[in-house]
Amino acid sequence: MRRTIFEPMKVLLFGLIAERAGTPTLELSAASTNELKVRLAEHIEGLAALTYAIAVDHRMVIGNMPLNGHEEVAVLPPFAGG
Amino acid sequence: MMPTIRMNDVKTHRKRDIFVEGPIDPAFIAGSIAKHATRTDIGAHEIFLGQVRADVIDGRTVEAIEYSTYRDMALERMTAIREEAFTKWPGMTCLHVHHSLGTIKAGELCFMVFASAPHRQSAREAVAWVVDRIKADLPIFGKEIVEGGGHIWKRNT
Questions:
Q1: DSSP B91
Q2: Distance linking the first and last C-alpha atoms of chain B
Q3: ipTM of the complex
Q4: What pLDDT, in 10s, does the model give residues B4-61?
Q5: Which residues have C-beta within 8 Å of that of residue B26, sequence separation ≥ 6?
Q6: Which of A28, B45, B59, B115 is most exposed, with the fewest beta carbons within 10 Å of its own?
Q7: Structural domain for B68, as ranges
Q8: By the CB < 8 Å criterion, does B70 face chain A?
């Protein structure tokens, strides 16, 4: 379902991305993950040079995906577990 | 006669917390091994331990790694990995995973994957596979603290 009014949604930021943004969360409006990337780049200086992925409801997004604003959206830098 | 219920017959794979604050104490690992003494169907334990390495990056030595995670996603991914592991190695008796959060100094342990099985092959294969999957799939982030106070964000290759 596409929202008619794009109220901001809470976006979770982690690791290097949170450090660059200076905050662990951002309130952004976006109807898709591609649009979200544009909004993120407006808020996080130098984002284009960084490697990151978008997770929606705990799943990594490949390509573009519509957002209804009720998902749990996170921006993830490369993993470093182990 | 009542049938014997073995641990293998009941695998619920509930979302367990794998994360521990601070390093993994070798005494805890010893305790984990000891707890399996009553499971006499086990013939093999395989344990992988990750230790923080004092890498030298651009001439500066790594003193510690500060780990953080996207906990809800990591635990959900871990549950899926656990389920897949028990599907691939149905003979595996049990699988224990712990990963550190917070600051872990060079030389300290930050990661443990411990599998037990009747025979060594499934325990050995399962641990190798689970370690690789965790490194690739779990949203865990590591800030390498270098001497002199700076930091570099670690990434698994």
A1: T
A2: 54
A3: 0.92
A4: 444 444 455 667 899 999 999 999 999 999 999 999 999 999 999 999 999 999 899 9
A5: B109
A6: B59
A7: 16-32+41-154
A8: yes
